[in-house]
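Quick log. Single chain, no ligands specified.
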Amino acid sequence: MRNIYLFNPENDLAVAHGKKRYDAPKAARRLASDMSLLPLWYADRSANSLILTDSDIPIDYRNDLFEALKINAKWSAFGKYVYSSEDVFCPWGWSPALADRLEHLAGRRLSLPDLSLYRQFSGRQFAVSVLQELQEMKVLDASVQIPVIASSLSSLSQTVSMFGTPCLMKSPWSGSGRGLLWVRDGWTDSVAAWCNNILKRQGEVVCEPCYEKIQDFAMEFKVENSQLKFVGYSYFQTDDMGTYRGNLLASDSHIEKLLSAWIPLDELHTIRKVLMDLLSERLVDQYDGYFGIDMMICKSSDRYFLHPCVELNLRFNMGLVSHALFENYIQSTAVGSYVIMHGRNSDELRTFSAQMGNDHPLVISNAKIEKGFCPLTYIGDDSEFMAYCLIE
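-> predicted structure:
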């Protein structure tokens, strides 16, 4: 058996589109191409793995680094890949568009997961239903306002009045930082037009109160052989629009210590157990693979509280990448950062990478990074994005 990995970050947008024919935005295509080697860092080390790339990356690229870290995965451009019946596709995420693309690539019908279930569990409505159950179970305090799912403009207008402003409109399916509209001046014509557009395309809109967020984090899980297990934590940063920027690289115990500054650890562990019980009932017989649940530490008046389910990402995610990177390739006591950088062009990325390499020389011992700067993706002639880690 051979695991075939590919990085398709446009997956959430393709799931939202829902059809086999989908053209991703230019920025999403650029990100997918520039960071196509990213699966090297989360591919199963015990398996025979191949990463599919959008360009011909030199076979000896960073050969010394990969040897030092004992990375065995190989890569191949899509145009040179030859399908074998023993190949198992491990994409970033599944959508009808990707399934169609892979069947054309393989030249045959493939055994595929039930993509309708992926869409169902990936929708923001599912996260709201989880919050409602947690509140009914009295695990989530009744004073915490949870989002409202609405299917009409009148319901949305009433919800805005109930929550007050600012509040946040979300399309049920969208990519990171997309499908969001902050409502700051009440129910206006422009807000109504935006919501009406989403209602026509997706049938519902999620209206969310404004939480005073202190910190983003996530719990990462894996379903395998009908068993759900906790993988670890993701402690990450987003910008004002909710777009992902980077992760803390640290042990789970270190992340728990940070979170315990705001909430008791027993509360964190209780939420984790309850979520695993709930999701075991719903997911384990219908899904196989990784997923993450985004959460937040929030402040209300003079207290902090845990928002336990902002959304569920039924796919690989950057938190899983950073967790695998830390567990497999970084010294267990180290602390650092994992960053996605957007530059104007490849020259800017190369200049930055060279300067950081000089300022923070990479030190590797016993196949683990002790400190320093390490680019994680290939910088091609047209690149605008790169991933890197920095251990200080």
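The CA atoms of residues 64 and 77 lie 21 Å apart.
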